[in-house]
Input
Amino acid sequence: MNKTVNWDPPISLELLKERKSLHEFQEAVERKLEKSPGGAIAVFNMRQFKYINESYGREKGDQLLASVISAMSQRSKKGELFYWVGGDVFYVFIDWWDRDYVRQRLESYLMGATKVSERILKNSQAAFYCGAVISNPESAAENYSLERMLTHVMYALEKAKEFPGNKIWFFDAELHEKELQENRVELQMQRALMEEEFKLYLQPKVDPVTRRLKSAEALVRWQMPETADGTLLSPGAFMPVFERTGFSSRLDQHMLQEVGNLLQSWRKQGIRPIPVSVNLSRRTLYEENYIRALEWVKKNYEIEDGEITLEILESVAFGNLERANEILERVRDMGYRISMDDFGSGYSSLNVLAKLKIDELKIDQAFLRGMEKGSREERILETIMKLAKDLDIPTVVEGVETLDHETLVKSLDCGCAQGYLYSKPIPADEFTEKFMKNGGSDYRFQLTEM
Ligand code: C2E
Ligand code: MG
Ligand code: MG
Output
């Protein structure tokens, strides 16, 4: 080959006749793996191939392809396979499974392709990326089939495309499983809402001194059809996905409506309602639709002032204190109470507590976990309680599971306790039967420690 610097070697387009099929690649890899299990598969793409074809012309596109094929196949070592399967798709098999080694090899292929593209496109170069999957001899023994490797390598390629900072993306089984689960959840959430699979559960909030029922918190449970055997999904399994997709506000609206409906149905049955609180995701409060729903629920179900409390997270106010207060004022004017949930669980700031207009403070259950007499947690809790009292904000302690917890809550002069000691969250109908038809706010818990 002529190596004169300023002379471009002629590009033979003959190479473009040597296109192989993915099936051929698959068969070749199969033969390799049969002889010696373990290896890596990678698939390469060019970022702007379509654009290059359009703006430089088809002929230039073909020249580029042929040169890339030539450069990459020259880099291919003994034992490796390089197949061009058409378009800007190139497959490579590497007969080793050490990740660093594989990465090095893939970088070499990338380098070859990039360099040659620079020569063809003159002042510019094509950007290549690749997805890779590794099967070591153990995973081969665990039936990690070639078929699955080929699916997974495409997934890795998509990831590499998605994150331009990473030219090489290795398939990650854990991430993949998580995304599959999220996709399943996302696909199902709209349907679940229509099919009424989101169930209203209630958990009592109790006066720890008299052990009388004071109010309740509404908590969502997802009864999926395939878990009709009685297993329910708790919010931890789906709320994070809903929050990412924005569906959480829609679900919060649904729960609000369910609570409105329940309060009205108690009234119709001659039962005096107790206040019920609903939870709001971070962004729900800023959704105009939700504010409209608040108006509608109040009117439609004839809800009295103070009967529904909105539990918000302190993070709704971060960097947005004024705006948050504006909305809270509007909502309180409508007759809703505001509670700050999970206080002390995150980056609690006393500033938020002092500035945000709230009617109740819920102390996160983490405080009671493993709390010992005289511990730092206890001192912090005492201080928060004192501060809340000074600010005239009633408090609720969450996660009261034992009589010792209750004693502690009482000693802190906290007016309200919530936790498994009194009851786990139960379906709304059961709550009505058990507590509302037995006195409602006169209901007294008879306790035996669990
Ligand atoms: P949260 O609002 O702080 O609700 C209290 C959580 O603590 C509930 O979990 C409840 O079952 C649990 N819990 C209550 N007492 C005890 C106890 O004594 N020990 C222990 N270990 N746990 C106790 P759940 O129902 O799984 O809900 C988790 C979180 O999901 C809630 O925390 C709330 O932030 C969110 N969530 C629930 N329903 C909704 C909803 O409709 N909308 C929104 N946006 N979030 C919701
Ligand atoms: Mg809550
Ligand atoms: Mg909470």
